[in-house]
Specification:
One of its GO terms (biological process) is fatty acid beta-oxidation using acyl-CoA oxidase. By secondary structure, the protein is an alpha+beta fold. Helix content is 52%, strand content 10%. The radius of gyration is 27 Å and the shape is globular. Bound molecules: ligand LV5NTVZW and flavin-adenine dinucleotide. The site of ligand LV5NTVZW has 31 residues, from helix 3, helix 5, helix 7 and helix 10.
Amino acid sequence: MLSRKELFKDTLKKAAHAWKRTVELHLTEEEANLLRLYIDQPGYVDLHWVMFVPAIKGQGTEEQQKKWLTMAYKFQIIGTYAQTELGHGSNVQGLETTATFDPSTDEFIMHSPTLTSSKWWPGGLGKTSTHAVVYARLITEGKDYGIHGFIMQLRSLDDHSPLPGITIGDIGGKFGSGAYNSMDNGVMRLDHVRIPRDQMLMRLAQVTREGKYVHSDVPKQLLYGTMVYVRQTIVADASRALSRAVCIAVRYGAIRKQFGSKAGGPETQVLNYKTQQSRLFPFLASAYAFRFVGQWLKWLYTDVTQKLESKDFSTLPEAHACTAGLKSVTTSATADAIEECQKLCGGHGYLNSSGLPELFAVNLPACTYEGDNVVLLLQVARFLMKTVSQVASGKQPVGTTAYMGNIQHLMQCKSVVNTVEDWLNPAAIKEVFEARALRMAVNCAQNISKAPSQEEGFEAAVAHVQLIIVTKFIEKLQEDILGHGVKEQLQKLCGIYALHLIHKHLGDFLSTGCVTARQGSLANERLGKLYAQVRPNAVALVDAFDYTDHYLGSALGRYDGDVYSALYKEAWKDPLNETVVPDGYQEHLRPLLKQQLKLSRL
Ligand SMILES: CC/C=C\C/C=C\C/C=C\C/C=C\C/C=C\C/C=C\CCC(=O)SCCNC(=O)CCNC(=O)[C@H](O)C(C)(C)COP(=O)(O)OP(=O)(O)OC[C@H]1O[C@@H](n2cnc3c(N)ncnc32)[C@H](O)[C@@H]1OP(=O)(O)O
Ligand SMILES: Cc1cc2nc3c(=O)[nH]c(=O)nc-3n(C[C@H](O)[C@H](O)[C@H](O)COP(=O)(O)OP(=O)(O)OC[C@H]3O[C@@H](n4cnc5c(N)ncnc54)[C@H](O)[C@@H]3O)c2cc1C
C-alpha cells in the first residue's frame, strides 16, 4: 500500500536497523547476510554485500582490499556494481564506457561517450550508493584493452550530492506495485570524471605509472568472478522463493474445498484432486531439489575459491558452467512455479494478501539479472561442446561431466525399466538422465560441425543441468538423514522430481532412444502413485520449511489455516475501505447518477 517514495524510505529504515543490529551483535559477514534476507525487500544493501564487496575481494590487490573493504565493512561507504549500460547488458565485451589513462596526471578519465553507454540498472545506484565498481574499456597508450573494473566515488560523503561530472538518478518504476520498487536501480552518465590510477582494480591487470598495460598470470575470466559468486547465491534464493510459494499453495489446498459433497456432507479439499497434485507436487519436489543442489553449489564455489587462491584455475570453467546453468534452470522454474501457484490458489491467489503476486514480481527478474537465462544456458552449451570434443580426443572428463567418460555405454544403452516399480531405482533414473544429456550433447556437437550456430545446444544444456539436480538429490539421499521416516519422504520427492522431468521432456527421452514409449507410460504411472503417497504428508513437508507467518506474508498460507478470517481482515485494511463513500463520488459518480435519474424521469 506504500507509495514508491514511502517504500524506498521504508527499505532504508529497515536496512539501517539491520546494520545497527549487525554491529550490536557483532555478527559475522555470513550472519549479516542472513539477517539481510529477513529484510525481504530488495535494497541497496544487497548490492553492497553481494556484488561490491565480492568484486573488490576478487579483483582488487591486497592493498586495495585493505583500503576499500575496511570502509565497506564499516558502512563508511556504500557500494554498487555498475556494469550494465542502456544499450548493453548480456554482452559485457560490448560495453562502451571508457577509462582512458592520462599519464600527465596519473589518472583515469571515466567517460560515457554515447547515450547507450549510460550505466543503467545497477541496484542502489539511483539514490543511495556513494561508490561503485564501474566496468569500462581501459584505454592506454592509444590502445583499447577491453573491459576492466574501477572503483569510483559517486557522491559526496558530506551531503550525498553527486560529484562533479556525474549525472545520476533512478530509472523509474518497475513491474508490480511493491516488489523491486523498493530498490533504486539507477542511471549514470560520466563526463570526463578523473579518478586516481590506483582505483583501477589491479589483481588481474595493471597500468604502470608510465601507462604500460601489464597482465597478471591469472586468467582474464576472473573479471567475471563476481558473477559466478552471485549466480551461486541466486540458486539458494530461488529455492527459498519456490518453497515459500509451495508452502502457501499446499496449505491453502488443504483448507480450500470445492465440489464432491455427498448428501450435504463436506466438500473435497482441492489438494485431494489428482490434477491439483500433478500440478503442485512437482513444485514441492523442486523446492527440495533446488535446496540440495544449492547447498552442493555453495560447496563447489568454496572449493573452487580455495583452489584459485593456490593458483589452481583448472576448475574455473566447470564452476562457471554449473553456476550459470543452475542459476538459469532454477530461476526460470521458480518464476513459472510461483505463477502457477497463484492459479492453484484460484481467485484468492490473485489477491496481494495471498503473498503470491509480490513473490512473483520480486523473483521474476532473477531470470534476467546476473545474466539472461538463455544467454547463460548458451554458455553451458559451449562448455559441453568443448567437453565432448575433449572426450573424443581421449581426455577423461571430471566433476559434473565425468559421466561423459562412460560414452561407449551411454550412447547405446537401453533402460532396464520393465515395471512401474523399476522407476523407484535411483540407478535406473540416473542412467536415463545421463544417456539423454550425453546423446543430446553429442547430437548437438555433430550438428554444429555441419552448420555452426551459436544458438545450438540450448536443450542439451538444460538436459545436463537437470541431470546435475537429479544426481545431487540422489546423492543427498545416500547421506545419513535424521528423523523417523524423513528419508522415505525425501525418496518419494526425489522420484517425483526426476519422473516429472521425464514426463515433461518425454520428447527428448524418446527421440534420443533413452526411454521407450512404454517406459514413459510406466514413469507416468509411478508418478501418479507417488503423488498419492506424498499427499498425506504434503502439509508436513511444507511446514518443514519452518517459515513464520510473518515471513510468509500470506493470508492463504497461514500455519493455523484460518484463511477466511485472515482474507476478510486484510480486505478491510485496503485504503479504499477507509471511507464508506469513495473519494471521487462527488465529482464523478454523483453528477452522472443524478443526470441519468433526471433523464429517466423525462
Ligand atoms: C535481489 C533481492 C531479491 C529479493 C529480496 C529478498 C532478499 C534479498 C536477498 C538476497 C539477494 C541476493 C542475491 C541477489 C543480489 C543481487 C542481484 C541483483 C542484481 C543483479 C546484478 C546484475 O545483474 S550485474 C550484471 C550481470 N551481467 C551479466 O551477467 C552479463 C552476462 N554476460 C556475461 O557474463 C558475458 O558477456 C558472457 C559470459 C555471456 C560472454 O562473455 P564473453 O564475451 O567474454 O564471451 P565468451 O563466451 O567468449 O567467453 C570467454 C571465455 O570466458 C568464459 N567465461 C565467461 N564467463 C565466465 C565466468 N563468469 N567465469 C569463468 N569463465 C567465464 C567462457 O566460458 C569462455 O571460456 P572459453 O574457455 O570457452 O574461451
Ligand atoms: C531487477 C534488475 C536488477 C539489476 N541489477 C543490476 C546491477 O546491479 N548491476 C548491473 O550492472 N546490472 C543490473 N541489471 C542488469 C542485468 O544484468 C541485465 O538486464 C542482464 O544482464 C540482461 O541483459 P539485457 O537486459 O541487456 O538483456 P538483452 O541481452 O538485451 O536480452 C534481450 C533478449 O535477447 C536475448 N538474447 C541476448 N543475447 C542473446 C544471444 N546471444 N543468443 C540468443 N538470445 C539472446 C535474451 O535471451 C533476451 O530474451 C539488473 C537487471 C534487473 C532486471
